[in-house]
Every structure is written in structure tokens, then in C-alpha cells.
Amino acid sequence: MGQPEKKKDLKRREIIIVASRQMNEQGATAIRLSKLSQLVGLTRNALYYYFKDRVALIHACYLFACKNNAEDLNFALSVKGGAAERLGAYIDRTLLGPNAERAVLTDLDILPSAQRSELAEIIDQNVGLLESILEEGISSKQLRPFNVAIGAQVIQGLLSWAQLWYRWAALDQQALDCHYQIAADAIKQAVLEGVSTDREFSVSFQQQWVDLSPRPFKAFDPESLQKEKRYQLVGAASLLFNKKGIEATTFDDIADQLGATKGAVYHYFKDKKALVKACFLQAFEQYDSIADIAINSSGNPLEQLLASLHLNCQAQMTRSPPLTLQGSISNLSKSHVSRATSIAEKMSDVRATAIAAGLHSDIDENIITLSPGAFFWISSWVEGRTRESEMALADEVCRIVFTGIRSLP
């Protein structure tokens, strides 16, 4: 490769990394090409020398993320040792390697069909590589038996959330400066060893979120009917936002999901920004409710943490799940960070009590704000990935996080 071509490739890579950071902060379609060109030291016209339009740039960022994920997995497969060592190497390289800053794959549906198919194929191949590491570990008895399909998605979800979580967590500057190291260490410990000091801790949980969150409804009361319609609309939007991404979901998609007209959606919300705001308000009511139910349950502190994770997993599999805390709404997130922080603080207090009682390992306190990665993407992968029931799937996610996947001594 000649010097001009090498220089062009380096600049192209720089643009992709900076654009990926913008996508994680603001959403894929919110990238401002004028600001991006300033950040990378180019004129806007010069930027088009590298990418013909915004869609080409978004595709390049997602492709960069997918290909680097494949490189991380192949590197891990080359590491000497067993599955635990390879999994640790994969987590470290993903979050601490040369290409740690990459776009989270939340808005793939904004791309043309051919590009989506290309990325979906690479994603499936990457999941297959990760599953092969886990399967080898089970075969060699280095890892305990568990549902590999669910385990791979939990790990990928935690790594994806690690790209976004610090924007929602109340981190001091010292923690911000090393947030990827914090995330890598906490994820490795949680996945391999679990957060429970008792690695034979029972994660069986009987309560169901649908039974704990009944909604009073009077079918013949006009006001009650309107409230229920609005609740279902916000729930349908949240489900699609979680599955496809906020940017990729249209009012037409939401109307189809509801079996309604687009006009019916506009009757309640004048634009997507108003709808997203409503989704967040409804989501935090659900997150608050789950935290309060868990804290007020009769179990010990570790069982209360289990209840929180289990109920959150269940909630993501309902028709009206809480909107996940995505990085693509930074213009709205400031008004919601305090609520996210409040919930995290409540659960951190439970964690501290569990540690004092000798029930919870002394894993980094940020595991509380990192752990949502285990369930935030459930709605996007559950169909076709596993035949487990909702309760069994939630059990398995909790078993991975609480008791780890490394075999018992």
C-alpha cells in the first residue's frame, strides 16, 4: 500500500471512530456531518471524499464494529489455555483493545436491506464463534453446563452496554477515566465467578412480573379506556424501540404493531420526541416499581437483587416492556439520569448490605449499573435464539450473573 492510500485509510478509520462515538451518544441519524468534519479536521466537502453520504458512514461504522468483534473473537480463540482464559481475553480485547470505541448495533434497520443482511450475517457468525468458545468450555468441564445461546447473548449484551453505561451512571472523574477497565473487570468476574459468594445459590424465582404489575381497567369508562390505549401505544413503541432502535422505528411501524392507523398514533403524540419522552416516563415507572418490589420482598439482600434482575428480564419479554436506556437520546437523557441514578443507588445499598452479610462478592460497585446489559437486548434476540419459556430464560440469565459459568472446584 502506497503512502497516500495508507494516509487515506488512517483518516477513514479516524472518521469511523469519531462517528461511532457520536452515534452512541446521539443516535445514528443524529450525526451532524458539519460537526464531525470539524472534529476530524476536514471540510464538509472533504468528508464526502471518504463517505458519499450519511448512510454510507453509518454502514461503515456498523461494519467496523462487526469486523472488530470478529477479530476480537478470533484473537480469543488463539489464546492458549481453556475457555475461561479465552473468554477473559475476549472481554479484555473488546473493551481494552485498540478498537474499543465502536458503534453499538442498535439502529441497523435504518440501513438498506442488502447492508442489513451483510451485517446480520457477520453478527450471526460472531455469535457462533462465541458459542463455540462456551461449548468447548462445557465439553472440557472448565465451564459448567448452561444454555450457550442465552449465555452468548448475555455476554454480548454486557459488552454492548459497556459502551453506553457510563453516560447514565453517576461516575466521578477517576472512574470515567478508566470506565472500560472497570467494565472489563466487573464483567469477567460476574460472568465467570458470579456475584454470589455461594456459587450453588439457587436462582429459582417464582413471582411473575405480569402478576405483580396489574393495571386497573374499566372497559366502559372513557377516561380509563383512553389511558389504556395510551399505555399500550407507549408499550408497543418501547418494544419496537428496543428491538429495532429508536432511530429505525417509524410511526408506521408502531401503528402496524398496534393494528391501528398512523393517525391514531399522532392523536396521542405530535412527534417521535414526545413519544420517546413518554416511553422514558413509563419505563422509569416500571424500573422504579421493580426495584421497590425487590427491596420490599421478604428475602435476604442477595435474593432481593435476584428479584430485581429476574423481574427486569421478565419485563423485557412482555408486550409493553420498559424502554432500555439507550445512548441515542442524549438530548433527553439529562432529565432522566437522576431517576436512573436514584434506582441504582437503591440497589447499591442492597448490594452493600449483601456484602456485609457475606452473601455478595466484593465485585466493583459499578456492577449494579453494568448488569442491565444482561437484559436490555432480550427483546431483540429472544425470537429464534432459544425455546426456553420466559421464566426459564430469566432463570438462566440470573444463574449466569449470580453463580457464574466457571465450573465449581
Automatic annotation (TrEMBL):
Keywords: DNA-binding, Transcription, Transcription regulation. GO terms for molecular function: DNA-binding transcription factor activity; transcription cis-regulatory region binding. Residues 9-69, 227-287 form the HTH tetR-type domain. Signal peptide: none annotated. Pfam families: TetR_C_24 (PF17932), TetR_N (PF00440). Residues 32-51, 250-269 bind DNA. It comes from the Bacteria. PANTHER family: HTH-TYPE TRANSCRIPTIONAL REGULATOR BETI (PTHR30055:SF234), HTH-TYPE TRANSCRIPTIONAL REGULATOR RUTR (PTHR30055). This is Transcriptional regulator, TetR family. It comes from Halopseudomonas salegens.
